[in-house]
Design a protein that fits this description.
- The complex is a heterodimer.
- By secondary structure, chain A is an alpha+beta fold.
- Chain A has a single domain, classed as Ubiquitin Conjugating Enzyme, CATH 3.10.110.10.
- Chain A is built from 4 helices and 4 strands; from the N terminus they run αββββααα.
- In chain A, strands 1-2-3-4 form a 4-stranded antiparallel sheet.
- In chain A, a hairpin with a 2-residue loop joins β1 and β2.
- By secondary structure, chain B is an alpha+beta fold.
- Chain B has a 4-stranded antiparallel sheet.
- The chains are: A alpha+beta, B alpha+beta.
- Chains A and B meet through β2 of A and α1 of B.
């Protein structure tokens, strides 16, 4: 199966010029399917956490957005229990001018700027609005519990 | 050759189809645990086909999508008791060798394919008049 040049270029650049705090590695047997990690942004409840995601480039990419999902449990008003993400650039505001790296940066930015007015996880969004301090405390707890960075592999 | 959609994104598509109710009216399916990030365990229902002993009955099933789904077919088991040649009379498990879509599974088949084929099985000339256990009984 031949891979479009655009995807090859994007993948090469992700490796040669990585985005700080973001790591994306394609599966050997499916070069459209990436294992992703995103570091929680500083000054956010997710700081210190490393979040695992998966990303898939559909056949129609880049005419349609990549599909992205969190695999690490996260307490966030725009991310649901199955890790699905409510983010405009993944849906209606997708443009072929965007790339894997810009999408992952947007996901990271979403962690720094939760938006409870456009919720996907309704229970989380409601708590975020009613008691923001408590919601942030829960988000920090979940980060500690589920998003602990894996120790560096010893060589 | 087209892009090969990975298991999890394929299951998310099936979930959305089930949630939006775009699927065939004769059957439905959804995650049995909405918190399960692996999306392995599913509930299905089949509405018994008309002009058969199954008419107006609602059958519940369990479907399990393992780590190799959709390269490998799901495991399918009836919860509601039913008398059908491809279904074990002791525990309700569907015998993969006796249902064509499971026996000759293809990657582009999905849970709906399986549920609809089971429903067609209920309506075949040989099966539609088979005596059935009382309605509403379940496999223990």
């Amino acid at each position: 199966m031949s891979l479009p040049k655009r995807i090859i270029k994007e993948t090469e650049r992700l490796v040669s010029d990585p985005v700080p705090g973001i790591n994306a590695v394609p599966h050997e047997e499916n070069l459209r399917y990436f294992d992703v990690t995103v570091d929680g942004p500083s000054q956010s409840p997710y700081e210190g956490g490393v979040f695992k995601l998966e990303l898939f480039l559909p056949e129609e990419y880049p005419m349609v957005a990549p599909k992205v999902r969190f695999l690490t449990k996260i307490y966030h008003p725009n991310i649901d229990k199955l890790g699905r993400i409510c983010l405009d650039v993944l849906k209606t505001n997708w443009s072929p001018a965007l790339q894997i790296r810009t999408i992952l940066l947007s996901v990271q930015a979403l962690l720094g700027a939760p938006n409870p007015d456009d919720p996907l996880a309704n229970d989380v969004a409601q708590r975020w609005k009613e008691d923001e301090r408590a919601a942030i405390a829960t988000a920090k707890e979940w980060t500690q519990t589920y998003a602990k960075p894996e120790p560096e592999a010893e060589t | 050759m087209s892009a090969k959609i990975p298991r999890n994104f394929r299951l998310l598509e099936e979930l959305e189809k089930g949630e939006k109710g775009l699927g065939a009216e004769a059957c439905s399916y959804g995650l049995s645990d909405g918190d399960d990030i692996t999306m392995s365990d599913w509930n299905g229902t089949i509405l018994g086909p008309p002009h058969s002993v199954h008419e107006n009955r609602i059958y519940s099933l369990k479907l399990t999508c393992g780590p190799n789904y959709p390269d490998a077919p799901p495991d399918v088991q009836f919860i509601s008791k039913i008398n059908l040649p491809c279904v074990s009379l002791t525990d309700g498990k569907v015998d993969k060798s006796k249902l064509a879509c499971l026996d000759k599974w293809k990657r582009d088949f999905n849970m709906e394919t399986v549920l609809l084929e089971l429903r067609r099985e209920m309506a075949t000339g040989a099966n539609r008049k088979l005596p059935q256990p009382p309605e509403g009984t379940i496999f223990e």
